[in-house]
Amino acid sequence: MVADLSQIVKAYDVRGVVPDQWDESLAELFGAAFAQVTGASAIVTGHDMRPSSPGLSAAFARGAASRGADVTEIGLCSTDQLYYASGALDLPGAMFTASHNPARYNGIKLCRAGAAPVGQDTGLAEIRALVERWSTSGAPAPAATPGTVTRRDTLADYAAHLRSLVDLTAVRPLKVVVDAGNGMGGHTVPTVFEGLPLTLVPLYFELDGTFPNHEANPLDPANLVDLQKRVREEGADLGLAFDGDADRCFVVDERGEPVSPSAITALVAARELARNGGKGTVIHNLITSWSVPEVVREHGGTPVRTRVGHSFIKAEMAATGAIFGGEHSAHYYFRDFWYADTGMLAALHVLAALGGQDGTLSALVAEYDRYAGSGEINSTVDDQAARLAAIRAAYEGREGITLDDLDGLTVTSADWWFNVRPSNTEPLLRLNAEARDETTMRRVRDEALSIIRG
């Protein structure tokens, strides 16, 4: 097929509807282009449980092998398991997943050896250009010596590596409900949690890329309802929810209440700093809570604020040698995991922290959840730039208020802040607000929304 790649090659990955926007013939060209752009003699691939994933992954492997690259297929895996393989084997990698998108979507997350991200500025633009050329003129002639395609199971090694990074020896018996959303958490959780003193209550562990129970997107509160209900019914100590490719993890406490990802970021940051002698840099994006940099400083660390998005976090972590990074979207990044994100390792930290003391999770995280936040609120607008200019005009010059443009527009006062960011792919503005108390937060949120929505 001759594809409109502008619709499927995003800033950091490939994603689109199968077979309408891309198919196995295009996946094969992506494999050939990936091998050529990276210059790799060997690569590793993995895929999620979507019906189209095995075929797309196999086609990609054929394309890479046609350019002379040896391909190690690890088969069914979570995205962070693919990152593990890329790091442990020191190979460029390709993960076939559309994360939390609906069933008809699929995509490719690409990385260089050591799980280093591939985006528009780090190879994806060149890959797209090659695929576009080849989709019209035909694939290049195969290499004189084609590569091989072999299978390898990395699940046990992945689990062992994660568990080597967290001290789980003092964990008391806990009951934990895990909602895998019919995604890859159902594949990885039983092996990672094996042997721990946990009573595991599984929800939707059957691998099913049609997502028959609910979307595998825990960022939407509607998709946490089943987990919250089950935690209360079971009298569980906590609940965990993974997205479709199981690289993000959301937490609910013993009351079934969601725990802010910012509070999890702060909790894990404190633990990672303790593991590193009370020293180290921690990255957080600009919509995480004020709690995060406060906790980092209180535990001897240096907080560094970045734009939203994994490429910015990973680049800043590599530049600073940061030990940990967190985003309010529940992506958690670890130096000892090749600076890549793994929700599973964050989950193990939560289990270790809760299981290492006698109190409840709600009491434990209260120390890290200090402010009132709005969550992310999306508004459809006709003109993103005009709405941002209106916000700037409304707040610029006000006494005690500062503005910055690191990512969208952030407006900060002594008692509150809010950030407004334009979506790169939709006519949306995204608002996040926080204040020292709920009443102030609501006032600031509503004032900002009134300007955004005109």
TrEMBL record:
The answer to keyword Electron transport applying to this record is: no
Q: Which InterPro entries match?
A: A-D-PHexomutase_a/b/a-I (IPR005844), A-D-PHexomutase_a/b/a-I/II/III (IPR016055), A-D-PHexomutase_a/b/a-II (IPR005845), A-D-PHexomutase_a/b/a-III (IPR005846), A-D-PHexomutase_C (IPR005843), A-D-PHexomutase_C_sf (IPR036900), Alpha-D-phosphohexomutase_SF (IPR005841)
Any Pfam family: PGM_PMM_II
Where does the record place the Alpha-D-phosphohexomutase alpha/beta/alpha domain? 7-134, 157-256, 266-371
Q: Which residues form the Alpha-D-phosphohexomutase C-terminal domain?
A: 376-448
Q: Do you know which NCBIfam families this protein is assigned to? A: PRK09542.1
Species of origin: Streptomyces composti
Cofactor names = Mg(2+)
- For the keyword Magnesium, the answer is yes
Q: Which family does it belong to?
A: Belongs to the phosphohexose mutase family.
> By what name is this protein known?
Phosphomannomutase/phosphoglucomutase
Enumerate the UniProt keywords alphabetically. Isomerase, Magnesium, Metal-binding, Phosphoprotein
- Domain of life of the native organism: Bacteria
